Structure to design on (326 residues):
């Protein structure tokens, strides 16, 4: 909710600096009623496409939090690799991508690596998680969480694939987070009326859903600026040029970066309140994830080269045909 007005402000100043670009549709009544009806339906579909990512962001965050409360953090980590599978399968199903041998190999290596990171890390810190409250319902929440995460990336790719405006990725992110903020604000107000729901969603709130500890402000600021505005806008910009599956593959590298930052902080002796731990055998999973990313990148480069060669061959054949015709 905090990131939404910041993104809208960035979009406003970016468009103002760029000369106030706007995308307007011409109103030509001479096209006829059938065409206008089709255009109207197309407009409604386009509006739904722009609003749905915000709904999926809301479901992603809400179900992740609820699932962790109902089940356990280990299950939350174990479910994350499914995002890669969901993204690839849905993209293939809707004809947005092709299922290649390289993609299958990359997906297999990435999922194995993510599972190793999850379970080996859980074995090292098995005492950190509490008793689960409703394991089955928690797993359902994690399913919705991971499916929503995949769908939001796929829809962003659909919206940005043919975008021509240089601010298209900012527009999509601002719209998505504005919708998500509306859903989140509605959910927060609704939950605040139920003390039982407040105690369930936030045990540390002591019955006050609107109290924010001062110690949490720095973490919230970091999450808003780096995790949301910078990271998601960078991902949206990348989705203008890369398939949705590539974004999901690279998302699995987050634990590797987290481990690298943790090691760097521990190496310089910075460990506030002793919350950081040296990585253990779970880093074996990082090797599989890196291998999966290398396979995916190699496969993508090879597919791009093949398409370029086919395009050149087609141009040469067309040129030969025109010469023979002359």
């Amino acid at each position: 909710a905090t990131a939404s007005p910041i993104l809208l402000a960035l979009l406003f100043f970016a468009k103002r600096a760029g000369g106030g670009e706007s995308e307007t549709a011409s109103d030509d009544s001479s096209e006829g009623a059938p065409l206008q009806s089709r255009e109207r339906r197309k407009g409604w579909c386009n509006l739904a496409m722009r609003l749905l990512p915000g709904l999926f962001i809301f479901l992603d965050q809400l179900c992740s939090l609820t699932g962790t409360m109902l089940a356990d953090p280990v299950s939350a980590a174990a479910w994350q690799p499914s995002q890669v599978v969901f993204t690839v399968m849905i993209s293939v199903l809707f004809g947005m991508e092709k299922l290649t041998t390289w993609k299958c190999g990359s997906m297999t290596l990435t999922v194995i690596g993510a599972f190793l990171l999850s379970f080996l890390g859980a074995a090292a810190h098995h005492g950190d998680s509490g008793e689960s409250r409703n394991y089955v319902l928690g797993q359902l929440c994690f399913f919705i969480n991971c499916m929503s995460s995949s769908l939001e990336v796929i829809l962003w790719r659909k919206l940005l694939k043919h975008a021509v405006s240089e601010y298209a990725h900012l527009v999509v992110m601002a719209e998505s987070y504005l919708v998500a903020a509306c859903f989140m604000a509605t959910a927060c107000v609704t939950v605040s009326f139920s003390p039982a729901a407040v105690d369930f969603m936030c045990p540390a709130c002591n019955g006050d859903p609107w109290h924010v500890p001062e110690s949490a402000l720095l973490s919230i600021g970091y999450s808003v600026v780096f995790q949301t505005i910078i990271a998601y806008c960078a991902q949206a910009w990348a989705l203008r040029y890369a398939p949705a599956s590539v974004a999901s593959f690279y998302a699995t590298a987050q634990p590797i970066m987290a481990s690298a930052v943790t090691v760097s902080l521990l190496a310089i002796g910075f460990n506030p309140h002793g919350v950081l731990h040296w990585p253990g055998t779970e880093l074996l999973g990082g090797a599989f994830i890196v291998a999966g990313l290398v396979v995916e990148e190699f496969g993508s480069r090879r597919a791009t080269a093949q398409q370029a060669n086919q395009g050149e061959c087609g141009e040469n054949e067309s040129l030969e045909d025109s010469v023979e015709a002359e």
